[in-house]
Design brief:
- The protein has 277 residues and is an alpha/beta fold.
- It has a single domain, classed as 2-enoyl-CoA Hydratase, Chain A, domain 1 (Alpha-Beta Complex).
- It is built from eleven helices and nine strands.
- The strands form two sheets. A six-stranded mixed sheet has the order 1-2-3-4-6-9, sandwiched between helices.
- Strand 2, helix 1 and strand 3 form a beta-alpha-beta unit.
- Helix 4 runs antiparallel to helix 11.
- The chain is globular.
- The two termini are 21 Å apart.
- The model has no long low-confidence stretch (mean pLDDT 94).
- The structure holds zinc ion.
- Zinc ion binds next to helix 11.
């Protein structure tokens, strides 16, 4: 277990910065890390002096995705029950698909959607690899600023699952790019993600932190209420066009693929194409 999987600082007036801080595990998302991250987002949200929140990562990679060691050890469901900030979903201690759906609805879909709706501008400062579950930390942010070494990949289909739990793919990449991203599970470069509209800016790796902070400082000088409502209005446009309905439908499909894999393989994922990463 890590001592402190999340770090928090205030690098400029009205700017909070949250660091994923499991570099030795490539910032793999243990349940403990996700709840520590949620507490850090809550802290920044509830501090009226903070106008902008940056999400950054320590170590060579932004995030390797779900913590597969925790999943293999079968401890994730116990860990979520021990969290003080657990939401109102239930059934973590049940058996079968009920427990799996409960965990993923709360910890994956629930937290990512909560961060997407956080009432302050958020900026993802991304470098290195973002693999599968890692997308669920990056995509909820309002702006994405990528280093030129950043790459993005969803390996879910290779593992017999129909995409990562926070199914925002069509809205991040557009329809055709989203399908290719899912079908091929290939690595998308920062430049390709920028061309698809998923990333706001691509900057040299050694400029990433300063550039992100410059953007955050600029936004942080503006009235928070106007920022908050501008964000809500854009999110409302997306949701009025069906995003939240699609997200929940895709989550049901995702649970079906887990249940299918469990019936056929005795595992949540199809091990046939299991490879590193
Ligand atoms: Zn899942």
């Amino acid at each position: 277990m890590d001592d402190e999987p999340i770090d928090y600082d205030m690098p400029a007036p009205r700017v909070a910065r949250i660091w994923l801080n499991r570099p030795q595990a490539r910032n793999a998302q243990s349940t403990q890390l996700l709840y520590a991250l949620n507490r850090a987002f809550d802290r920044a949200a509830q501090d009226d002096n903070i106008h902008v929140i940056i999400l950054a990562a320590r170590g060579p990679h932004f995030s390797a995705g779900h913590d597969l060691n925790e999943i293999a050890a079968g401890t994730a469901h116990d860990t979520v029950r021990a969290q003080q900030t657990v939401g109102t979903w239930c059934g973590f201690g049940c058996s079968g698909a009920e427990a799996q759906m409960a965990y993923e609805k709360e910890v994956y879909l629930g937290l990512s959607e909560r961060w997407r709706n956080l009432p302050k501008p958020t900026i993802a400062q991304v470098h290195g690899k973002v693999i599968t579950g890692g997308l669920m930390l990056v995509w909820p942010c309002d702006l994405i600023i990528a280093a030129d070494d950043a790459t993005f990949q969803d390996t879910a289909v290779d593992l017999g699952v129909c995409g990562v739990e926070f199914f925002n793919h069509p809205y991040e990449l557009g329809i055709r790019q989203a399908k290719e991203f899912l079908f091929r599970a290939h690595v998308l470069t920062a430049q390709a993600a920028h061309a698809a509209g998923m990333v706001n800016h691509v900057v040299p790796r050694d400029r990433l932190e300063d550039f992100t902070l410059e953007i955050a400082r600029e936004i942080a000088r503006k009235p928070l209420f106007a920022l908050k409502l501008a964000k809500e209005a854009v999110n409302a446009a997306q949701d009025a066009a069906g995003r939240s309905t699609v997200l929940h439908a895709a989550f049901g499909h995702h649970q079906l693929t887990h249940a299918h894999n469990m019936l056929v393989h005795g595992l949540l994922m199809d091990p046939t194409n299991l490879q590193s990463g």
